Amino acid sequence: MTRKVVGFIIGSILFVALVIVAYENWPQRLPATDASALELVKFCTSDQFANLDESQKLPYVEALMKKGIPTIIAAANEAKLTQDERQRGLENALQAGIQYRWGQHLDNWMQLDPKAKQEYVKKVAAQMPMRPPGINTPGPSDPSRNGRPGARGGRFSDPARHKAFIENMSPDRRAAMAEFMSDLRAARGEK
């Protein structure tokens, strides 16, 4: 073989290798927030969604919630998600919503002077729905909870979600969140 043919073969192999490397490392595109419920539900179960910044996740969660729970359930059924995938999608979406909503409250609160902080806490407490009487008293092993975990927050709140929420914060934000939540509980008359 001539040098020209050998050079062409080596060049072709290198070109194919570069295309494969580029394809494998190319960032995946995010779906549009106005995509179908089916596409959004599948996306919420993915590692790609889980690895997004919290502020990037929220538009997807909001878009899904606007479609309504029956549509989301129908999309999850159509997607033929396993129980684990459904749980992961729910966890991902809930965590994004919690991080974003409480993160906004914390950011607003941290910028205020002490007197304004107390007023802000009262405002947030007034906007929160009241828990039914006794919701804070049963513990995780209480039979009246029908096997649901956690002593507060109902069906979608349990110690693991609270722990994940706190662990995703920087140490200074953790300390501020502890103070904010303590003030919020006091404003609501909770222990």
Give keywords.
elongated; mainly alpha; 191 residues; 9 helices
Strand content: under 5%
Structural class, by secondary structure, is mainly alpha
Note poorly predicted spans.
135-155
Number of alpha- plus pi-helical segments: 9
Order of helices and strands: HHHHHHHHH
The overall pLDDT average reads 75
Which bin fits the share of residues in helices? Answer: 55-70%
Write the layout of secondary structure elements.
Elements (H helix, E strand, L loop, with lengths): L2 H23 L11 H8 L2 H4 L3 H14 L1 H10 L4 H28 L3 H14 L31 H9 L3 H17 L4
Summarize the structure.
By secondary structure, the chain is an all-alpha fold. The protein is built from nine helices and no strands.
Plain-language structure description:
About 11% of the residues have low confidence. The radius of gyration is 24 Å and the shape is elongated. The longest helix has 28 residues. The chain has one domain. It is mainly alpha-helical. The chain is 66% helix and 0% strand. 12% of the residues are buried.
